[in-house]
TrEMBL record:
SUPFAM superfamilies: Immunoglobulin (SSF48726). PROSITE patterns: IG_LIKE. Its main location: membrane. This is MPZL2 protein. It comes from Alaudala cheleensis. The gene is Mpzl2. It is a single-pass type I membrane protein. It is found in: Membrane. Residues 24-140 form the Ig-like domain. Belongs to the myelin P0 protein family. It comes from the Eukaryota. Keywords: Disulfide bond, Glycoprotein, Immunoglobulin domain, Membrane, Signal, Transmembrane, Transmembrane helix.
């Protein structure tokens, strides 16, 4: 029976170590979906938290999965300094916009095209935290901005203001007409006096 007790203790210790390992993993945070207008630039925000201080071996990998589910493409890499892709669709179209001291590993994609629709992944390793979550951002490139609630509110306020100006103007014009009509009737002024 002592062998079973040893095996049970090892399993419990293994479970506790696994829980500590999971707690020590890097956590990556991104927006789930971003909508951008064709031809504009878009910052893809990615931040991380780690149980370890930021190390010199911290690395960041950005990759892209097109909507048509073709092969993943590298977008950007960081290890001590930013490395732009030497080839591919994002060559000369991506720049580093992060700040490692603030746990920010964001990038900017320039001159967005409809072919950029897809999912961008952000992966951070911070030795000894080499495992953790991978952040995903789904990018949708649209031809024009959709009619948002703020636009609707601006149109509603503008329309209400214009309608109020028309009503006030109509009331003023009606009063002036009545006054002129009353002033033109000669008998009305004598009988009132």
């Amino acid at each position: 029976m002592p062998g079973c007790a040893w095996l049970g203790a090892a399993l419990v210790l293994g479970a506790q170590l696994r829980a500590l390992w999971l707690a020590a993993a890097v956590e990556v945070h991104t927006a789930k979906e971003v909508v951008a207008v064709n031809g504009t630039n878009q910052r893809l925000k990615c931040t991380f938290s780690s149980s370890s201080p930021v190390s010199q071996q911290l690395s960041v990998s950005w990759n892209f999965q097109p909507e048509d589910l073709s092969a993943h493409e590298p977008v950007f890499y960081f290890l001590k300094e930013p490395y732009k892709p030497p080839s591919g669709r994002f060559k000369e179209r991506v720049t580093w916009d992060g700040n490692i001291e603030r746990n920010d590993v964001s990038i900017i994609i320039w001159n967005l095209q409809p072919s950029d629709n897809g999912t961008f992944t952000c992966q951070v390793t911070n030795w000894p935290d080499v495992y953790g979550t991978i952040g995903e951002v789904r990018l949708r490139v649209v031809q024009k901005v959709s009619f948002s609630e703020i636009h609707f509110l601006a149109v509603a306020i503008g329309s209400a203001s214009a309608l109020m100006i028309v009503v006030v103007t109509a009331v003023i014009l009606c009063r002036q007409r009545r006054r002129r009509a009353r002033d033109k009737r000669p008998g009305v002024a004598d009988t009132e006096g």
